[in-house]
Backbone:
Protein backbone atom coordinates (compact mmCIF):
# COMPACT_ATOMS: atom_id res chain seq x y z
CA UNK A 1 0.00 0.00 0.00
CA UNK A 2 1.31 3.39 -0.89
CA UNK A 3 1.47 6.34 1.54
CA UNK A 4 -1.19 8.27 -0.42
CA UNK A 5 -3.63 5.36 -0.19
CA UNK A 6 -3.23 4.99 3.56
CA UNK A 7 -3.90 8.67 4.19
CA UNK A 8 -7.01 8.47 2.00
CA UNK A 9 -8.26 5.48 3.97
CA UNK A 10 -7.53 7.25 7.29
CA UNK A 11 -9.25 10.44 6.12
CA UNK A 12 -12.39 8.62 4.98
CA UNK A 13 -13.94 8.24 8.49
CA UNK A 14 -13.16 11.89 9.23
CA UNK A 15 -14.87 12.95 6.00
CA UNK A 16 -17.91 10.77 6.69
CA UNK A 17 -18.19 12.16 10.24
CA UNK A 18 -18.01 15.72 8.90
CA UNK A 19 -20.69 14.94 6.32
CA UNK A 20 -22.99 13.41 8.94
CA UNK A 21 -22.59 16.42 11.22
CA UNK A 22 -23.35 18.83 8.38
CA UNK A 23 -26.46 16.82 7.41
CA UNK A 24 -27.63 16.68 11.02
CA UNK A 25 -27.24 20.45 11.29
CA UNK A 26 -29.06 20.99 7.99
CA UNK A 27 -32.06 18.80 8.90
CA UNK A 28 -32.30 19.93 12.51
CA UNK A 29 -35.63 21.56 13.28
CA UNK A 30 -35.59 25.09 14.57
CA UNK A 31 -36.96 25.38 18.08
CA UNK A 32 -40.36 26.98 18.38
CA UNK A 33 -40.32 30.70 19.02
CA UNK A 34 -41.02 31.23 22.72
CA UNK A 35 -44.33 32.88 23.44
CA UNK A 36 -43.94 35.78 25.91
CA UNK A 37 -47.54 35.38 27.06
CA UNK A 38 -46.88 31.74 27.98
CA UNK A 39 -43.81 32.80 29.97
CA UNK A 40 -45.86 35.49 31.74
CA UNK A 41 -48.61 32.97 32.58
CA UNK A 42 -46.04 30.50 33.90
CA UNK A 43 -44.45 33.24 36.02
CA UNK A 44 -47.86 34.26 37.38
CA UNK A 45 -48.69 30.66 38.33
CA UNK A 46 -45.32 30.21 40.01
CA UNK A 47 -45.59 33.46 41.98
CA UNK A 48 -49.16 32.71 43.04
CA UNK A 49 -48.11 29.31 44.35
CA UNK A 50 -45.19 30.86 46.25
CA UNK A 51 -47.35 33.62 47.73
CA UNK A 52 -50.05 31.17 48.83
CA UNK A 53 -47.41 28.96 50.39
CA UNK A 54 -45.93 31.94 52.23
CA UNK A 55 -49.37 33.12 53.38
CA UNK A 56 -50.07 29.67 54.74
CA UNK A 57 -46.69 29.53 56.49
CA UNK A 58 -47.38 32.90 58.13
CA UNK A 59 -51.01 31.93 58.89
CA UNK A 60 -52.36 35.00 57.13
CA UNK A 61 -55.63 33.26 56.26
CA UNK A 62 -56.16 31.80 59.72
CA UNK A 63 -59.31 33.45 61.16
CA UNK A 64 -58.12 33.63 64.74
CA UNK A 65 -57.46 36.47 67.12
CA UNK A 66 -53.92 37.73 66.87
CA UNK A 67 -52.07 37.60 70.16
CA UNK A 68 -51.03 41.11 71.20
CA UNK A 69 -48.90 42.16 74.12
CA UNK A 70 -49.72 45.54 75.66
CA UNK A 71 -47.38 47.39 77.97
CA UNK A 72 -47.43 50.85 79.42
CA UNK A 73 -44.84 53.40 78.49
CA UNK A 74 -43.07 56.12 80.41
CA UNK A 75 -43.03 58.36 77.33
CA UNK A 76 -45.51 61.19 77.09
CA UNK A 77 -47.79 60.24 74.22
CA UNK A 78 -50.83 62.41 75.03
CA UNK A 79 -51.86 65.23 77.31
CA UNK A 80 -53.45 64.12 80.52
CA UNK A 81 -56.99 65.19 81.14
CA UNK A 82 -57.22 67.29 78.03
CA UNK A 83 -60.27 67.42 75.83
CA UNK A 84 -60.67 64.65 73.32
CA UNK A 85 -61.38 65.87 69.83
CA UNK A 86 -63.07 63.90 67.13
CA UNK A 87 -63.44 64.35 63.40
CA UNK A 88 -63.58 67.96 62.26
CA UNK A 89 -62.32 69.21 65.64
CA UNK A 90 -65.52 68.10 67.39
CA UNK A 91 -64.90 67.98 71.15
CA UNK A 92 -66.25 65.29 73.48
CA UNK A 93 -68.15 67.94 75.44
CA UNK A 94 -69.90 69.08 72.25
CA UNK A 95 -71.02 65.52 71.58
CA UNK A 96 -72.39 65.15 75.10
CA UNK A 97 -74.28 68.42 74.80
CA UNK A 98 -75.83 67.43 71.44
CA UNK A 99 -76.76 63.94 72.56
CA UNK A 100 -78.10 65.31 75.83
Residues:
Amino acid sequence: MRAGDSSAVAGLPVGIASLLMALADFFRQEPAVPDPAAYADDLARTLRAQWLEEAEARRLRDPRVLPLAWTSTAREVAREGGPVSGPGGLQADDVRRVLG
Q: What stands out?
A: The two ends are 127 Å apart (CA to CA). Residues 3-27 form the longest helix (25 residues). The chain has three helices and no strands. The helical segments are 3-27, 36-57, 92-99.
